[in-house]
Amino acid sequence: MRVLLTGGSGFIGSHIALLLLEKGYDVLILDSFVNSSSKAINAIKAYLENKNLNYDLQTISGDIRDKKLLDKIFIDAAKKSNPIQAVLHLAGLKSVSDSLVNPLHYWDVNVCGTQNLLATMNENECYSIVFSSSATIYGLTDSVPISEDHKISPINPYGKTKVAIENMFYDLYRSNMKSWKICSLRYFNPVGAHPSGLIGEDPIGIPNNLFPYITQVAIGRRKFLNVFGDDWDTIDGSGVRDYIHIMDLSEGHINAIDYLCSKKSCFEIINLGSGKGYSVFQIISQFEQSTGSQIPFSIQCRRDGDVARCYADISKAKKFLGWTPKRSLEQICLDGWKWQRKNPNGYS
Ligand code: NAD
Ligand code: UD1
After folding, report:
1. Which residues are catalytic?
2. Distance from C-alpha of 345 to C-alpha of 216, rounded to nearest angstrom
3. Nearest CA among 9, 16, 5 for reference residue 41
4. Do strands 2-6 and 84-89 pair parallel, antiparallel, or not at all (unpaired)?
5. In a domain, 105, yes or no
6. CB of 210 closer than 8 Å to CB of 283
7. Residue 34, ligand 1, Cβ within 6 A
8. pLDDT tens, 2-16?
9. Which residue owns the Cα nearest ligand 2 atom 21?
């Protein structure tokens, strides 16, 4: 089965690509490389060749907003009698702070880009899509665990684009309920790396997120971690989040494709998280214990837009996708550290 994976060179996309190829899918990656390196694709190839696996991977450098290119991708695939049967749509911009500075750019790439993709899929009668949504759309809430029917209340342009896309899915599905199969996955905090240490998270510039910041402190690229608040109403005063191993998250996508294949039509929105909450101090302590590294830290003010705790109710993923996360927080730390140790400067 051939799938189009947009954003397949990025942090999450590269892990999904590897898993899809290992499972025998033909994968066509479309990525503009605006926030990723083609070295991630080389690393995937190196891994598969080392394992002597036959695979069919094609990479196209381009933008999801380029309608002509999308048309060509679908038409060429059909001409080769290997049409695209499903799309995993990850391409997009994801920085909360950037989205506050450049909101129109976020609406253009995320929303117009997705509209373009959906129009092309429609024209080419490809009706199956798995999408990367985000827990950020639940906004400033403290009522945990968060289930999919929780109020939607995004507080930044990035989150608003994800909500707009989910609304677009709803309208599209309603317009042709016989054909469309849509699964929007709301990710919590994907972290860690492939156990080989060949692919992982490589943020450009200073990491915004906790986990890559910690691994960069451990490797010596940053002196210490800023902890954003130790006065939250949590177990130890630091913020609590739902950290999910990137391989568990990737496996959730395989289950989502299987789910779509088993349906005549559907539109489902499903949380992907570990279902557990860990505080910043618990993460530091587990990382130190698992890796033997030291993570010096300094307590700072609370960060704008943060909440005390956020973790997922994952019962819908279990019920609908038959998926449960398998990897522990220790495994997250070990794999994330292996990637950082093998690649102190990421892909560069
Ligand atoms: P990433 O930036 O590493 O990957 C996104 C990929 O999309 C990059 O390779 C980038 O080059 C590509 N891209 C961006 N704009 C493009 C365009 N116009 N055309 C083609 N390609 C384009 O981010 P990620 O962490 O792998 O996230 C993947 C998806 O998951 C994103 O949609 C993101 O919003 C969503 N998500 C991520 C997180 C997270 O914590 N990482 C959480 C929730 C949701
Ligand atoms: C952040 C974004 C969210 C986005 C998600 C995944 C904000 C306010 N939220 O969520 O919209 O969907 O990333 O990309 O930006 N922390 C520190 N020091 C750091 C970094 C983080 O103490 O250097 C703390 C945070 O305050 C939080 C926890 O660590 O309590 C996790 O932070 P982070 O990894 O940024 O994830 P989220 O806050 O869940």
Report:
1. 158
2. 9
3. 9
4. parallel
5. yes
6. yes
7. yes
8. 999 999 999 999 999
9. 210
- Mean pLDDT score across all residues of the chain: 97
Q: Whose CA is nearest to atom 34 of ligand 2?
A: 209
CA–CA distance from 341 to each of 44, 216, 218, 223, 295 (Å)?
Answer: 18, 10, 9, 16, 15
295 dihedral zone (left: phi>0; alpha: psi -120 to 50; beta): beta
From the CB of residue 63, how many other CB atoms can be counted at a distance below 10 Å?
17
| Longest alpha-carbon distance in the chain | 60
In the predicted structure, residue 142 carries a pLDDT above the cut 90: no
Within-domain flag for 288: yes
Give how many domains the chain has, as a whole number. 1
Rounded (5°) CA angle 284-288-289: 120
Asked if residue 94 has its Cβ within 6 Å of ligand 1, the reply is: yes
Is the beta carbon of 192 within 6 A of some atom in ligand 1?
no
Give the residue numbers spanning the domain of 170: 2-342
CB of 13 sitting under 6 A from ligand 2: no
Residues 293-306 have pLDDT tens digits of 999 999 999 999 99
How do 26-31 and 56-61 pair as beta strands?
parallel
Residue 139 in contact with ligand 2 by CB distance below 6 A: no
**Which of 63, 69, 90 for mutating ligand 1's site (highest number of atoms within 8 Å of CB)?**
90
Q: 348 in a domain, yes or no?
A: no
Q: What is the CATH number of the domain that holds 153?
A: 3.40.50.720
Going by pLDDT thresholds of 50, 70 and 90, the confidence category of residue 115 is very high
Mutate which of 90, 228, 230 to test ligand 2's pocket (most atoms within 8 Å of Cβ)?
228
**How far is the centre of ligand 1, averaged over its atoms, from the C-alpha of 193 (Å)?**
16
Do residues 173 and 114 touch, judged by C-beta distance below 8 A?
no
Answer whether residue 347 is part of any domain: no
Please, what is the end-to-end C-alpha distance for the chain in angstroms? 33
pLDDT tens digits, 249-279: 999 999 999 999 999 999 999 999 999 999 9
Average confidence (pLDDT) over 210-235: 98
Q: Which ligand is nearest to the CA of 132?
A: 1
